[in-house]
Every structure is written in structure tokens, then in C-alpha cells.
Design brief:
single chain; two-stranded antiparallel sheet; 7 helices; elongated
Length: about 170
């Protein structure tokens, strides 16, 4: 009888401990700028100043990896807005080396229907070549069946700087 009681107590303690650890880990702060949370965004001014590990999402969103095809498209599309003129732009993520590397690494671990398109765009951007950002944006826009906000031209460096500074936060 005593063995059974001790066994029940030990199992209960282990179960309660496991639940406590699960809750504690789930509440860990994933984004120090906004206190964690399911989907988070950060201010533009901090993106280039943070060091990102290879496995951490440099878009500061809590999402599963490997990324879905839709999410890859949304990230590339939102980053392209930094470089292009369009009637409407609803999303924005600043282009950073860490983000480009992260997306390229996702192409290595998953298969995507439009993988070649993503790889061509990201490889050019990694090399600092944004001369085709209009067609890059529009390629992703078409894949997403866009109907408003086609890119029409590149922003000048001055326009790009003003656009980045006008964005209060990043989102897809």
C-alpha cells in the first residue's frame, strides 16, 4: 500500500513539474521589444543592430520552420516594398543580410513550388543587387495573385530612406 501511495505522489510531482516547465518555456520572451507573443513585430531601428542565431527568425515572429511557401512569399514581398514605388503597400520588413540568409537557408531545408524564383531574387539581394527589385516584387505579387499595388519603379535612395523612416513598425 505504501509503495502505491509513494508511486502516485512521485508521478504527481513529476507531472506537475513537467506542466510547470511547459508553461514557463511557453512564456519565455521571444522578442524583447514587445514582451514575446505569438506574432510579433519590431521597430525598424533595431533590426540591423541585433545579432541573430542561425535558427532564430530575424523577422521576430514566432512561426514554425521550415517556413511555409506563403510565408516565404510574404517576407520577400514585404521586404521588396523598401525598394519600389507602388500605388499600395500594406506590408513592410526592412531588408537585412540576416533576413536574406535566413530565407535562403529555408530554401535549403524545404521544397517550394516557386523555389527558383525565390532563390534568384534572394541571391541577387544578397549580392546587393536591387536593380531588378520592381520585377522581383511583381514576380512575387503575381504568384500571390495580386490585383492592387503592382510595382512601377524603383525608389531613389532619398525616397527609400524616407519610406523606411515613415514606417512605425514592420508587418507582413
Amino acid at each position: 500500500m505504501k509503495r502505491k501511495s509513494i508511486g502516485i505522489i512521485v508521478c504527481s510531482v513529476l507531472l506537475i513539474t513537467a506542466i510547470g516547465v511547459y508553461i514557463a518555456v511557453g512564456n519565455l520572451e521571444t522578442n524583447p521589444l514587445n514582451g514575446g507573443g505569438d506574432v510579433s513585430t519590431s521597430g525598424v531601428e533595431t533590426d540591423s543592430t541585433r545579432n541573430i542565431s542561425q535558427s532564430e527568425n530575424p523577422f521576430y515572429e514566432k512561426v514554425k520552420t521550415p517556413l511555409s511557401e506563403t510565408l516565404i512569399q510574404q517576407y520577400i514581398h514585404a521586404m521588396s516594398h523598401q525598394k519600389i514605388k507602388a500605388e499600395e503597400k500594406w506590408s513592410f520588413f526592412e531588408i537585412t543580410d540576416e533576413r536574406i540568409e535566413f530565407l535562403l537557408s529555408q530554401l535549403e531545408v524545404n521544397n517550394y513550388k516557386h523555389e527558383q524564383t525565390y532563390k534568384q531574387i534572394l541571391t541577387k539581394w544578397k549580392q546587393g543587387d536591387f536593380s531588378e527589385a520592381v520585377s522581383d516584387h511583381n514576380a512575387i505579387w503575381r504568384i500571390q495573385d495580386g490585383n492592387i499595388g503592382i510595382a512601377t519603379d524603383l525608389l531613389s535612395p532619398k525616397e527609400e530612406k524616407a519610406y523606411i523612416e515613415s514606417r512605425k513598425k514592420e508587418s507582413r
